[in-house]
Amino acid sequence: MSLGPIFECPIGLEKLIPEIARSNGIQVESVERCEPNACEKWFVFTTRFGRIVGHLDSKEGAFEIWLSCPREHAFNLLFWVADFGLSRRIEKFLCESGAVRVV
User: Fold this and answer.
1) 25, 55, 62, 94 - which has most CB atoms within 10 Å?
2) For 48-88, how does the pLDDT look when each residue is reduced to its tens digit (9 = 90+)?
3) Three-class SS of the chain
């Protein structure tokens, strides 16, 4: 997994992200894994060639989403161009929807 931007998003945007992404031509899959002491949730954004994983972290009054490339794309340079292009598209619609880039 590579490092990527982190965005602080207002509450309520989490539920709208799949709809906003689809309206921008990006497919979204919501994944949740719960264990006895913690739950993890993330979105998998895909286009024809690119794939980005958006890891969610809830906070009081907001939540953060961290965008990263999937592990299987880490050593294949051919995917990088599509992945980084997709990351920029996601960043654009997140910022237009009220998110603020933290890192």
Assistant:
1) 94
2) 989 999 999 987 778 999 999 998 888 888 888 999 999 99
3) CCCCCEEEEECCHHHHHHHHHHHCCCEEEEEEEEECCEEEEEEEEECCCCEEEEEEEEECCEEEEEEECCHHHCCCHHHHHHHHHHHHHHHHHHHHCCCEECC
